[in-house]
Amino acid sequence: MSEDGTTLSTTPRLFVGDGLSAGAAITLPAPQSHYLANVMRRQPGDMVRLFNGRDGEWAARVASLAKKAVTLVPERQSAAQEVPPDLWLCAAPLKKGRIDWLAEKACELGVARLLPVVTARTVVDRLNLDRLMAHMVEAAEQCGRTALPDLAEAVPLARLLKDWPRERALIFADETGGEALAATLSLVPAPAAILIGPEGGFTAEERAAIRAHPAAVPVSLGPRILRADTAAIAAVAVWQALNSPG
Ligand code: SAM
């Protein structure tokens, strides 16, 4: 336990929109105030950890507890702002529960950006970005991230390929075969992106177009056909293991 009473396991950790600096009081919105006061049963003087995606993490003290408005005063920065490895996850939208899970795990595993890609066999026509962002915020609160992933608007595959930034490797998870994953990804540092297809996979034309792209690095995730969400998280975990410090 640190001298101000914060411990990793018991101190609530919340994402806030306000700027964070020593002594600058912030008042939480009603849902977070309710959570702190009534669910976590914090009292004036208790410590909370705050982050906003810009200013690192701060140890803050509960100053007052009104019914729907808890006020906190940041005291000291408890962690510097992280700079995540520059890895994007480009994934076709999936059905509700699966895309929520994917967003949560991508955040936990430290992706810098989640970019939904609409392909010929994508069956989900509307993505609720607010809901996905809420899952990523919750994951970041739980896992200790200080930087939230950027969540982009969905783009069609053809436009993604056309506008692709030339310096960024496009790691193409191809269920029909590719280079061995670990040996290949150890040679593909940031900036990089992983591309995962929808439940129905890519069409033959899409696979040909991706493979023809100069940034494409086709990889196999092994002999089994994985669900799209499993494939995405397996590829991100291997890339992070091979390319992130510590
Ligand atoms: N319906 C497709 C089929 O049977 O060929 C399977 C699509 S798979 C459920 C969805 C996506 O996960 C694929 O487009 C690919 O990006 C990725 N994927 C799944 N298994 C993979 C593997 N063994 N190697 C590379 N990518 C894989």
Question: What distinguishing features does this structure have?
Answer:
13 strands; eight-stranded parallel beta sheet; five-stranded mixed beta sheet; alpha/beta; 246 residues; 30% helix; single chain
Structure commentary:
There is one protein chain. With 246 residues, the protein is of the alpha/beta class. The chain has two domains: 8-79, Ribosomal Protein L25, Chain P (Beta Barrel), CATH 2.40.240.20; 87-243, Alpha/beta knot (3-Layer(aba) Sandwich), CATH 3.40.1280.10. The chain has helices spanning 30-39, 96-108, 129-143, 157-162, 181-185, 204-212, 228-243; strands at 13-15, 26-27, 47-51, 57-65, 70-79, 87-91, 113-118, 150-151, 155-156, 169-173, 179-180, 192-196, 216-220. The strands form two sheets. Strands 6, 7, 8, 9, 10, 11, 12 and 13 form an eight-stranded parallel sheet that branches. The protein has a five-stranded mixed sheet with strand order 1-3-4-5-2. Helix 2 (96-108) runs parallel beside helix 3 (129-143) and helix 2 (96-108) runs parallel beside helix 7. It starts with 12 loop residues before the first strand and ends with a helix.
